[in-house]
Design goal:
The protein is α/β, with parallel strands linked by helices. It has two domains: about 150 residues, ATPase, nucleotide binding domain (Nucleotidyltransferase, domain 5), CATH 3.30.420; about 180 residues, ATPase, nucleotide binding domain (Nucleotidyltransferase, domain 5). It has a seven-stranded mixed sheet, with helices on both faces. Helix 12 links the parallel strand 10 and strand 11. The chain is globular, with a radius of gyration of 20 Å. The protein starts with a strand and ends with a strand.
Length: about 350
C-alpha cells in the first residue's frame, strides 16, 4: 500500500511516501522568508506549495499513484481524536478559519492531489484541535471565555503509543504527562488514551516558548493593549510569533542560545531557565489533574535534542514520575500509521461535521 504524507509547517513542507509502514521517500521542502513575503496570509500560499510538492515529486521520479493520502490537520472546529476523511465541510472551515497557520493548507493540498492526480481517498488524523478536555478544564473565571484545546495532538499521541508499545502495553491503559517542546510548547495530561487537559499552545496559554508569550498577567496585558503603542495585530504577533525567546533575546534558535549560556552569558541563561521553569510548573499542574497517578513523563519536540534543557527539566520533575526523552517528532510516521490502519479497516474513519 502506497501512502503519501503531507505536513506543511511555517517555513517548510514535509512530504513522504510509505510502502505500508516503511518510508521509501522523504523530503523537507524549505521556503525562504523572501519566497513567503509576497503572501499576506498562509492560505494564499496554497498554489505555491502545491507547485513545490509536484515539482519535488517529479524531480525525484516518484510515481504519483497512491492508495491513500494523509495530511497534517488544521485549526478548525474541536473534534475527538481519530482519522477523518477530508470532505467539503472541512475544506470550507479550513478556508475561513479565524486561526491562521500553514497547517491549514494540508487538507487542501491532500484532497486536490487525491482527487485530480492520484484518485484515492484523503485523510487527516489527530489534528491540532483534538478536544478531549473535561468540562471543568474548559472553564475560566469569565463565562464569555472558555479554554480552548489547541496542541500538538498528533505527536503527543504518537509518542504515547510508542512509549506504551515499548512496555508491551496499550496507550489507552496508561496515565502519562507528555510535553512537546518546539516553537510552541504543549503539556498534556493523558488519561487512558484521552488528553483530559492541555494548554492552548498557539495563542496565549502555558509557559513561554521560543516564539510565544504564554500565559500573561491579565491586567498588564490590558494596559499594553490600550497603551496606544500597538494595534490589535501587533499584540497578536507579540503573543504568537514575536514573543518568548524572540522577544527577550531576538532569536528562537535554541542551539545558539544554549552555546551562549554555557559560555557565561547570564541573561541568556536566565531566560532559558525561566522557560524550563514554566514547563516544569505545567508538568506539575498536570500531575494534579491526574491525581498523582502518573506512569511516566515523556519529553518530545525539537528542544528535546538539547541535553542542556532536558537535564534541567528532568531535575525539576523526575520526583513525579520517570522521565523519558523522545527528541524530534514522529508526525510523518504517525500520519502514515493512521492512514494504513484506516485503509486496512483496523480504524474506522470518521466524518467531519464542522
Amino acid at each position: 500500500m502506497r501512502i503519501f504524507v503531507i505536513n506543511p509547517g511555517s517555513t517548510s513542507t514535509k512530504i513522504a511516501v510509505f510502502m505500508d509502514l516503511n518510508r521509501i521517500f522523504q523530503e523537507s521542502i524549505q521556503h525562504s522568508a523572501e519566497e513567503l513575503s509576497s503572501f499576506k496570509r498562509p492560505i494564499e500560499q496554497y498554489e505555491f506549495r502545491k507547485k513545490c510538492i509536484l515539482e519535488t515529486l517529479e524531480k525525484s521520479s516518484v510515481s504519483m499513484k497512491f492508495d491513500a493520502i494523509i495530511s497534517r490537520g488544521g485549526l478548525i472546529h474541536p473534534m475527538p481524536s481519530g482519522v477523518y476523511r477530508i470532505n467539503k465541510q472541512m475544506i470550507h472551515d479550513l478556508t475561513y478559519t479565524k486561526h491562521e497557520h500553514a497547517c491549514n493548507l494540508g487538507s487542501l493540498l491532500a484532497i486536490d492531489i487525491a482527487e485530480h492526480i492520484s484518485f484515492c481517498p484523503a485523510f487527516i488524523a489527530d489534528p491540532e484541535v483534538v478536544d478531549e478536555m473535561t468540562p471543568e478544564a474548559h472553564l475560566t473565571g469569565l463565562p464569555e471565555i472558555s479554554r480552548i484545546s489547541i496542541f500538538h495532538a498528533l505527536n503527543q499521541k504518537a509518542i504515547g503509543r510508542k512509549y506504551a508499545s515499548s512496555l508491551r502495553k496499550k496507550y489507552e491503559e496508561m496515565d502519562l504527562i507528555i510535553a512537546h517542546l518546539g516553537g510552541g510548547i504543549s503539556v498534556g495530561a493523558h488519561q487512558h488514551g484521552k488528553v483530559i487537559d492541555v494548554n492552548n499552545a498557539l495563542n496565549g496559554d502555558g509557559p513561554y516558548t521560543p516564539e510565544r508569550a504564554g500565559t500573561l498577567p491579565a491586567d498588564q496585558l490590558i494596559e499594553l493593549c490600550f497603551s496606544g503603542k500597538y494595534n490589535k495585530q501587533d499584540i497578536k504577533n507579540k503573543i504568537c510569533g514575536k514573543g518568548g525567546l524572540n522577544a527577550h533575546l531576538g532569536t528562537n534558535h535554541i542551539p545558539e542560545l544554549v552555546k551562549e549560556a554555557e559560555e557565561g552569558n547570564e541573561k541568556v541563561a536566565l531566560i532559558l531557565r525561566g522557560m524550563i521553569y514554566g514547563i516544569a510548573k505545567h508538568i506539575g499542574a498536570m500531575s494534579v489533574v491526574l491525581e498523582g497517578k502518573v506512569d511516566a513523563i515523556l519529553i518530545t519536540g525539537g528542544i528535546a535534542y538539547s541535553d542542556y534543557c532536558t537535564s534541567m527539566l528532568r531535575e525539576k520533575v523526575e520526583f513525579i514520575a520517570p522521565v523519558f526523552i523522545y527528541p524530534g517528532e514522529d508526525e510523518m510516521e504517525s500520519l502514515a500509521y493512521n492512514a494504513y490502519q484506516a485503509m486496512k479497516g483496523n480504524m474506522v474513519w470518521k466524518e467531519y461535521k464542522g
